[in-house]
């Protein structure tokens, strides 16, 4: 069983940056696509970004395209989300997730992801 632990969240002013990390333990995630999702208070969980198992393909929600960058270091069993030009509407709990099956492409759908971290809070003030 794999455990995912997010870190790097915090309080930042609008226009600032944060870098989230998601470190896996118990199993390598190198053969799995990984995703970041977020959930704001009173809203449904939404897709943020995803990366293929090899790291060669990345996908972003329109709302974060050009501001966020997803990357991975399979040697460290870690996935990152660099968030720049943060806005108050980016305030949410951010979750990383591992795709259900190895060797398949990343997707936008949360039901395609089997393992989830506990989340890290990101708060952006205006």
Short synopsis of the structure:
The chain has strands at 3-7, 10-13, 18-25, 34-39, 46-51, 58-60, 68-73, 78-83, 92-99, 113-116, 120-125. The chain is mainly beta and 126 residues long. Strands 2, 4, 5, 6, 9, 10 and 11 form a 7-stranded mixed β-sheet that branches. A 4-stranded antiparallel β-sheet has the order 1-3-8-7, with no helix packed on it.
Report on this structure.
The structure is a single chain. The protein is mainly beta and 126 residues long. 0% of the residues lie in helices and 49% in strands. The chain is built from no helices and 11 strands. The strands form 2 sheets. Strands 2, 4, 5, 6, 9, 10 and 11 form a 7-stranded mixed sheet that branches. A 4-stranded antiparallel sheet has the order 1-3-8-7, with no helix packed on it. A hairpin with a 6-residue loop joins strand 5 and strand 6. The protein is globular and about 40 Å long. The N and C termini lie far apart (40 Å).
């Amino acid at each position: 069983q794999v455990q995912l632990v997010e870190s790097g969240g915090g309080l930042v002013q609008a226009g600032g940056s944060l870098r989230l990390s998601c470190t896996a333990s118990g199993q390598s995630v190198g053969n799995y696509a990984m995703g970041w999702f977020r959930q704001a208070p009173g809203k449904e969980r939404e897709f943020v970004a995803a990366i293929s198992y090899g790291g060669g393909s990345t996908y972003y929600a329109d709302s974060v395209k050009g501001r966020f960058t997803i990357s991975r270091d399979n040697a460290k069993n870690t996935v990152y989300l660099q968030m720049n030009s943060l806005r108050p509407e980016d305030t949410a709990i951010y979750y990383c997730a591992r795709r259900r099956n190895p060797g398949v492409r990343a997707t936008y759908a949360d039901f395609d992801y089997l393992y989830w971290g506990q989340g890290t809070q990101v708060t952006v003030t205006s």
